[in-house]
Structures
1.
Amino acid sequence: MRHLLTKKKTPWCLLMALCLALAAGCASTGPPVPPSGFLENYKALKPDPEVKGLYWWAKQGVDWKEYSKLLIDPVQVRVDKSKSKRRLKPGEAKMLAQKLRQAVVKALKGYYPVVNKPGPGVLRLRAALVHIKPVEPAMNVMSSAILMIPLDVGEAAVESQFMDSMSSQVLAEVVAVDEGSHAEVSKVWSRWDQVEDAFQDWAQMLKESLREDK
């Protein structure tokens, strides 16, 4: 089964995620964000050869065609405030976690059944927002006035886990990270536009992968 973030064939199904600077050390092949403790197989995560910022692991021997429905848990927030690059306003992280889940549910509507309880053939998706950095519009106003280019971009990262909804056996895990683009001129004047755009993009890729693997 294809993983849920790319368009290449892989033996499993993965999910979404979001924006963050890709600054992994030369000797490291793991994600450039500290593990939050949400996943079980961090050491097994490998970088995807086609998608920058995507790291995944999948259990061998899973027949993904057995799964025809998706149960999506509420997205958790596991942002380490002590390591955050920019202070968040009260309620912002929770709001973004809700928007991430909403983006996935909306993208799958009419294409792949989303259910509200475990059952045979139901794949369970758990996800946690582990890093978010908003754009600072005032900084971009200043840099644009002086350097003629906005310098500040949004960042985020998501950890995701796919499980058999009946047995709770972990079948696949993914860490997705990315960073907003300075070229997205229309998106650098709002605090969260780049992050929310990433939610939409990855939700669409998830839909495409699930549809092709049915």
Note: Residues 1-28 have pLDDT under 50 and may be disordered.
2.
Amino acid sequence: MAAIAIVFASCGSEKQMTSSQPQQQNQRMQEGVSIVIPCVDVSYDDENYYRDLGIGTALNPQMARKAAVKEAQSMIKERLNGVVKGLSVDYSRAVSGNAPSDKVQGIIESEFNTVIDQVLNNADKVCEDLVKLQDGNYRAYYAIQISKKEIVNKVAEAISMEEEFGIEFKREQFRKYADEYLEKHGNK
């Protein structure tokens, strides 16, 4: 009799364990798996900087890093294109005076694009991480930042030297206008 009781007890407990395992797996599948992305916590804009994170995958670490840097630069530039367009339209309407506003707008956009390319090439690294994947490839995470003030100052300087502008360009007025505009419209 004692032997029979042990068999029933162990069968009962074994059944209980196996019936709860599928429930736990089912619950995990419904919830998903949390993935931690390196450097993402430091890749958000603030009042002073534009930031972004690039991710690159390649057979060697240098190529993965280079791809991640290019992606981060590209993402910032893409985001700034819309901001620059809006700023140039608004500012050119506000100050065009005798000059055609589309001419003023074109000059502002051209100078912004030139400055943004220069600044992005010298962007500050905020975070970098490298992971070797199971397939032998490398994945690089690279977060960069560029200063909003530096962009505005360099654009103001470049525009003030532009002889075709056709109006008296006031650097301080532009800096103030651009700073306020970027603060309102430039954060992701």
Note: The CA atoms of residues 157 and 171 lie 7 Å apart.
